[in-house]
Amino acid sequence: xxxxxxxxxxxxxxxVNSWGLNSGTKLLNYKVCSSPRHGLTSVGSRFIASSQIPxxxxxSTAPIYFWSWDKPQFGVKSFPAEPxxxxxxxxxxxxxxxxxxxxxxxxxxxxxxxxxxxxxxxxRSVTCLxxxxxxxxxxxxxxxxxxxxxxxxxxxxxxxxxxxxxxLYSWTEHALRVTDIVxxxxxxxxxxxxxxxxxxxxxxxxxxxKIMRSIPLDSVxxxxxxxxxxxxxxxxxxxxxxxxxxxxxxxxxxIGILFDHSVAVTSIxxxxxxxxxxxxxxxxxRIWDIMTQHVVRVLKHAKAPISNVLLVKxxxxxxxxAHQPPLSKYVDxxxxxxxxxxxxxxxxxxxxxxxxxxxxxxxxxxxxENNSSAVAEMEVERLRIENKKxxxxxxxxxxxxxxxxxFYVKELLDHTKP
Length: 418
Fold this sequence. Notes:
Structural class: alpha+beta
CATH superfamily of the largest domain: YVTN repeat-like/Quinoprotein amine dehydrogenase
CATH topology of the largest domain: Methylamine Dehydrogenase, Chain H
Strand content: 35-45%
Strand order of the largest sheet: 3-2-1-28
Number of helices: 3
Radius of gyration: 22 Å
Shape: globular
CATH class of the largest domain: Mainly Beta
Distance between the termini: 66 Å
């Protein structure tokens, strides 16, 4: 199997095409797919998942398909409770998250297909989803112009869920529909960049929980990508241009423009800081050398718009989907209705950087395996103590760093005195 791949989808039924990134060689065409924006994702690099555009406006649902890397026909077909737009999965491929047309977000366990939880996240359709660098936070954007940050452990806290305050932050700075979201590296000190039909990009701080900057655009941006060094980001716009914006410049953040697309840019991807891949409404995919800002290869998807382009590196063995169960429609499929399986988890630490996807996975697994209230109470108490120790340890490290900084500053000042 070729190393890194480009995979691309369209909102009309042209399938999902794949190419080798370095060679440009066309690989497989995965049949039967009309994927919405942000509706295509790689599940732990083991297989592809895609939501589908409903057959009609009155349709009450639309399928989600899974494909193995080496087979053109889909291996699993699921029917969620409503049409799903954006999809995202954690890097291990253990959890799949989808945003619904009603504003709800769904969280599935991939191995079992079980719907672990569903919550009402927005007043209108969810348009995009992204995970933080440590995968403990989920960021969602919506038709209502709101960007929200969700702690995936708090989602399973019954008290928070009942109060409707299970998000960490809710930002309403956008005036219109949110079109894309990207997240920087790091933990609580990382940044979030969002684009909107209001022709702006907003930069938010996770540590401060507020907006840092608003960058105006000449056109609506439907696609964002961030440079791994976080010095710049790329905004693919409806005027056919890709704007390169500085994350540090105050007065004139535009540091370059890529011009070769003649129609709206609909999706972009950047992985290593040297190559940018972009797709547009005319079905053309361009591979750019970022240093020279020149196109090095042009690929043709189909005579249809591009809805998604992804850069992925499939695992060699992939996943045999023959025994993969479909995704459950309800939180408790055995009940056949919208019952809720709420479990009590300890209150999270005061900063989100203490929470990791590993911790989340371990906690969910333990609570799924141990359903009795006695076991749950014991586990809650243990985790509360563990959380308290982590907070105390973090405070000690913080004080140590502050003491060291004060010492070195004093030493430096003493040596510079005449």
